UniProtKB/TrEMBL annotation:
Family: Belongs to the intradiol ring-cleavage dioxygenase family.
SUPFAM superfamilies linked: Aromatic compound dioxygenase (SSF49482)
Keyword Oxidoreductase on entry: yes
InterPro entries xrefs: Intradiol_dOase_C (IPR000627), Intradiol_dOase_core (IPR015889), Intradiol_RC_Dioxygenase (IPR050770)
Domain Intradiol ring-cleavage dioxygenases: 74-102
Gene3D superfamilies per record: Aromatic compound dioxygenase
Molecular function per GO: ferric iron binding; oxidoreductase activity, acting on single donors with incorporation of molecular oxygen, incorporation of two atoms of oxygen
Keyword Oxidoreductase: yes
Keyword annotations: Dioxygenase, Oxidoreductase
Protein name as it appears in the record: Protocatechuate 3,4-dioxygenase, beta subunit
């Protein structure tokens, strides 16, 4: 057995003195490269600090024209790990347009922008922890890291409580989407039941007859039934 007096991680390779090891090998010899931040590096759009307006949760009416695509109503209830509704929670969503294109310039997919759709909205939960959005069903898009993989249709959710440390980020998927099995993000969740908790349910009670299809997406912020979150 090898005998030594110091843990292995403080033993230096032969020929290295401590000053050389610390200063010449581990210290950067060139100036640090500052990587410019881009919108795509952010985990969410920047909405500002103002109180959500009355139409901020209606992504169908943010421009002069009507967005392309299937118009939908998305609603749900936000609860904590004890099943209690979470009121006054800021719920932000962001998503691709009906063609599967995000509004920012760093989206590399060769698809068209929709001049009548930005893809960002926000609202506050009411006293029962409920939220509602009107928007369009987003298109799927190819995953830039792997041409064989596709992101299934999804809406990003960011939920913020009274402090930024309480932020909860997740994604809503659509029921029956055949691309769910090829989605590289959803596939990272090993528990099949947890993956199912990301899938909204069709909800005709929430539909606006002749205008929108309704979906319900409840969000649980912790506990054994928690909605899977991004970290
Ligand atoms: Fe996305």
């Amino acid at each position: 057995m090898r005998a030594y007096t110091e843990p292995w991680w403080v033993q230096l390779p032969e020929g290295f003195s401590t000053p050389e090891f610390d200063t010449e090998i581990w210290t950067p010899r060139k100036p640090l490269v500052i990587v410019p931040s881009r919108l795509i590096d952010s985990s969410a759009p920047v909405y500002g600090y103002g109180t959500p307006g009355p139409t901020d949760n209606d992504l169908l009416s943010q421009h002069d024209g009507v967005p392309m695509g299937e118009h939908i109503t998305v609603h749900g209830r936000v609860t904590d790990s004890w099943g209690r509704p979470v009121r006054d929670m800021l719920v932000e969503i962001w998503q691709a347009n009906a063609a599967g294109k995000y509004v920012h310039d760093h989206d590399p997919t060769p698809k068209p922008h929709d001049p009548h759709f930005t893809g960002a909205g926000r609202t506050l939960t009411n006293a029962h922890g409920e939220y509602t959005f009107k928007t369009i069903k987003p298109g799927a898009y190819p995953w830039w890291r792997d041409p064989e993989a596709w992101r299934a249709q999804h809406i990003h959710f960011g939920l913020t409580g009274r402090g930024l440390t309480e932020r909860y980020v997740t994604q809503m998927q659509f029921p029956g989407d055949p691309l769910l099995s090829r989605d590289p993000v959803v596939s990272t969740i090993p528990d099949a039941k947890a993956r199912e908790r990301l899938v909204a349910e069709l909800d005709w009670e929430a539909a606006i007859p002749g205008i929108t299809v309704g979906y319900r997406f409840d969000i649980v912020l912790g506990g054994v039934h928690a909605t899977p979150a991004e970290h």
